[in-house]
């Protein structure tokens, strides 16, 4: 398949918005290499804009939490069975499963058994917990596209072809962000120190983390009356819930709330207090000193502490290979301990930390979609 004029058919399946972004990016890159390319599978509006006709709505896969999965399981299984049959009929030249491992790995296994080349884009966190899953991944996948460099090292050790493509957030976020510009966009005063408060985007984690974070803000404000706080919420529902919690803490005058614009808020702030997850990576790329704290539900924590094997849970520390930002989990994520770490952060010179953040940013900025497309091209040629 060396001739770019040869018709190429690529199947892709994304399960949520982040996967839709990745899928659309690699589709754009592939279209520049193969003018006569056809896309089939499942995706969201961004992938549809690039020419995918989604076999069923992507939203049907965007299900969070054990109870929700159980409730929707019959529908998910039916979708998966019909999709596999459809793709076996379509006979794509390659299949790209984007994240959603619980759904995509089974699809990949069945397609691979049918002789279709399979790529999994976004490694499952197999390096951190449930390492036994690597056997099933090897049975299902011909090649893994990794967003993080240490993931490739894991697959190399297990003799599964993998490529580190970089992280699309590192492509999207500039190496330098202007605090004054961000404050102007948000109509915030240029003077004064702001702490960004990001207690989570899901209802449950907001209920667990926001009261703790607000008490930390209250303690910091007591010693530093000049401090200001701003909290971006993912949608209006979370904003309403957080507003009620702010009122309970009697901090209406101290905490500004906005809907969306989390990246602008992080850029506008001097320091960040946040939960673990992708938001911590965004904070690193925006180059803001942070404290990462998280409390799991009791049941989740019982499972995680038995199966989790990574030395850290926050992405900044995982990427650095050592503790460069404070991370506090479960009982360690107390008001007192978080406050102590935030107080220390406020009093330190953070230049060396920012330089480490920039080094990691440079490492992750690899033009992920272009590198991913190159891997697809090589697989098609072979």
TrEMBL record:
Annotated metabolic or biological route of this protein: Bacterial outer membrane biogenesis; LPS lipid A biosynthesis
Gene Ontology molecular-function annotations = lipid-A-disaccharide synthase activity; phospholipid binding
EC supergroup of this enzyme? transferase
EC code: 2.4.1.182
- Gene Ontology biological process terms from the UniProt entry: lipid A biosynthetic process
A Pfam family of the record is LpxB
Q: Which GO terms describe its cellular component?
A: membrane
Keywords, A to Z, come to: Glycosyltransferase, Lipid A biosynthesis, Lipid biosynthesis, Lipid metabolism, Transferase
- Highest taxon above the source species: Bacteria
Keyword Transmembrane helix in record: no
Reactions listed under catalytic activity: a lipid X + a UDP-2-N,3-O-bis[(3R)-3-hydroxyacyl]-alpha-D-glucosamine = a lipid A disaccharide + UDP + H(+)
Q: Which InterPro entries does the entry mention?
A: Glyco_trans_19
The protein's matches in PANTHER family, at most eight in alphabetical order, are given as: LIPID-A-DISACCHARIDE SYNTHASE (PTHR30372), LIPID-A-DISACCHARIDE SYNTHASE, MITOCHONDRIAL-RELATED (PTHR30372:SF4)
Q: HAMAP family, alphabetically?
A: LpxB
- What family does this belong to? Belongs to the LpxB family.
- Tell me the function of this protein: Condensation of UDP-2,3-diacylglucosamine and 2,3-diacylglucosamine-1-phosphate to form lipid A disaccharide, a precursor of lipid A, a phosphorylated glycolipid that anchors the lipopolysaccharide to the outer membrane of the cell.
What protein name does the entry list? Answer: Lipid-A-disaccharide synthase
The gene designation is lpxB
């Amino acid at each position: 398949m060396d001739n770019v004029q040869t018709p190429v058919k690529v199947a892709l399946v994304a399960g949520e918005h982040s996967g839709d972004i990745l899928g659309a990016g690699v589709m754009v890159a592939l279209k520049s290499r193969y003018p006569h390319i056809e896309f089939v599978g499942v995706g969201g509006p961004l992938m549809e804009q690039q020419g995918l006709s989604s076999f069923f709505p992507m939203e049907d896969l965007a299900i969070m939490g054990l109870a929700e999965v159980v409730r929707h399981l019959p529908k998910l299984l039916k979708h998966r069975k019909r999709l596999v049959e459809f793709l076996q009929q379509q006979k794509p030249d390659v299949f790209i499963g984007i994240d959603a491992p619980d759904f995509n790995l089974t699809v990949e296994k069945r397609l691979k058994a049918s002789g279709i080349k399979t790529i999994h884009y976004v490694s499952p966190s197999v390096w951190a917990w449930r390492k036994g899953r690597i056997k099933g991944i090897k049975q299902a996948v011909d090649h893994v596209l990794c967003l993080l460099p240490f993931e490739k090292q894991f697959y190399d050790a297990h003799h599964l072809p993998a490529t580190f493509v970089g992280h699309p957030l590192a492509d999207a976020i500039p190496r330098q962000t202007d605090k004054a510009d961000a404050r102007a966009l948000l109509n915030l005063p240029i003077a004064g120190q702001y702490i960004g408060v990001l207690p989570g985007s899901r209802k449950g984690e907001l209920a667990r983390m926001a009261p703790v974070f607000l008490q930390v803000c209250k303690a910091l404000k007591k010693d530093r009356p000049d401090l200001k706080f701003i909290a971006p919420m993912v949608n209006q529902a979370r904003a309403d819930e957080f507003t009620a919690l702010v009122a309970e803490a009697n901090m209406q005058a101290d905490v500004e709330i906005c809907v969306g614009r989390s990246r602008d808020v992080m850029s506008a702030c001097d320091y960040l207090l946040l939960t673990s997850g992708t938001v911590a990576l965004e904070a690193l790329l925006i180059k803001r000193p942070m404290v990462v704290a998280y409390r799991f539900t009791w049941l989740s924590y019982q499972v995680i502490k038995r199966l989790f094997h990574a030395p850290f849970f926050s992405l900044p520390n995982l990427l650095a290979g050592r503790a460069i930002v404070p991370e506090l989990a479960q009982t360690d994520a107390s008001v007192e301990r978080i406050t102590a770490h935030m107080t220390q952060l406020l009093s330190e010179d953070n230049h060396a930390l920012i330089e480490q953040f920039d080094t990691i940013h440079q490492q992750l900025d690899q033009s992920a979609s272009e590198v991913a497309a190159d891997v697809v091209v090589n697989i098609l040629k072979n």
